[in-house]
């Protein structure tokens, strides 16, 4: 049975921390692939700053050089709140020959108790969490931990830098940097 990592997120925008996290988990757990799943309406955040299509294209362009990374548009096509439980159940139904692992950062590990139907979700998928600076990884739920090099980059920091007209080059994969520039994303008047 193929082992697949599911990496959901707003990816607003995708940054190098996301890429490092995905590769570290793939290697540590010997996963065949990592599927990046851009959310439509994340239940724990406000809506994204740019469209789902732009976020998906940034992911698609960034992962194109890694044949172990795929993009899954399931949540964007569904068009409602992006509840992990719905996504996992639908993927398990579509791909019964695959075993899924849901990848989350330390910030999400600490908030698992507030997720939509957490108890049911724990029965559906195994969680793999990664350390993140500033978070303790504290949870009562079974989450396996993968250590990654500490890297303090966040999508919100990138958006703030863009708002202040500061560079984000080298904080995001090169395709994301050029996509943002080409489309004029995150620019404020």
From TrEMBL:
Keywords for this protein: ATP-binding, NAD, Nucleotide-binding, Nucleotidyltransferase, Pyridine nucleotide biosynthesis, Transferase
GO BP annotation list: NAD+ biosynthetic process
Domain (Cytidyltransferase-like): residue spans on this chain: 6-161
The enzyme's E.C. designation: 2.7.7.18
Family matches, as InterPro entries: Cyt_trans-like (IPR004821), NadD/NMNAT (IPR005248), Rossmann-like_a/b/a_fold (IPR014729)
GO molecular function (one): nicotinate-nucleotide adenylyltransferase activity
UniProt xrefs under CDD domains: NMNAT (cd02165)
Reactions performed catalytically: nicotinate beta-D-ribonucleotide + ATP + H(+) = deamido-NAD(+) + diphosphate
Pathway in which this enzyme or protein is active: Cofactor biosynthesis; NAD(+) biosynthesis; deamido-NAD(+) from nicotinate D-ribonucleotide: step 1/1
Domain of life: Bacteria
SUPFAM superfamilies reported for this sequence: Nucleotidylyl transferase
Family: Belongs to the NadD family.
Role of this protein: Catalyzes the reversible adenylation of nicotinate mononucleotide (NaMN) to nicotinic acid adenine dinucleotide (NaAD).
Protein name, UniProt field: Probable nicotinate-nucleotide adenylyltransferase
Organism: Salimicrobium jeotgali
């Amino acid at each position: 049975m193929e082992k697949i990592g599911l990496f959901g997120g707003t990816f607003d925008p995708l940054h190098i921390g996301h890429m490092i996290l995905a590769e570290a988990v793939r290697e540590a757990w010997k996963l065949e692939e990592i599927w990046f799943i851009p959310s439509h309406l994340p239940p724990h955040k406000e809506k994204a700053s740019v469209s789902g299509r732009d976020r998906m294209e940034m992911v698609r362009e960034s992962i194109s050089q890694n044949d172990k990374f795929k993009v899954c548009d399931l949540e964007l096509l569904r068009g409602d709140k992006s509840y992990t439980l719905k996504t996992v159940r639908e993927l398990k139904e579509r791909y019964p020959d695959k075993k899924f692992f849901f990848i989350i950062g330390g910030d999400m590990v600490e908030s698992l108790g507030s997720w939509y139907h957490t108890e049911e979700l724990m029965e559906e998928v195994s969680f793999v969490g990664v350390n993140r600076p500033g978070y303790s990884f504290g949870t009562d739920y079974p989450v396996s931990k993968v250590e990654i090099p500490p890297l303090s980059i966040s999508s919100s920091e990138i958006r703030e830098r863009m708002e202040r007209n500061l560079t984000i080059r080298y904080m995001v994969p090169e395709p994301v940097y050029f996509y943002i520039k080409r489309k004029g994303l995150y620019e404020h008047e």
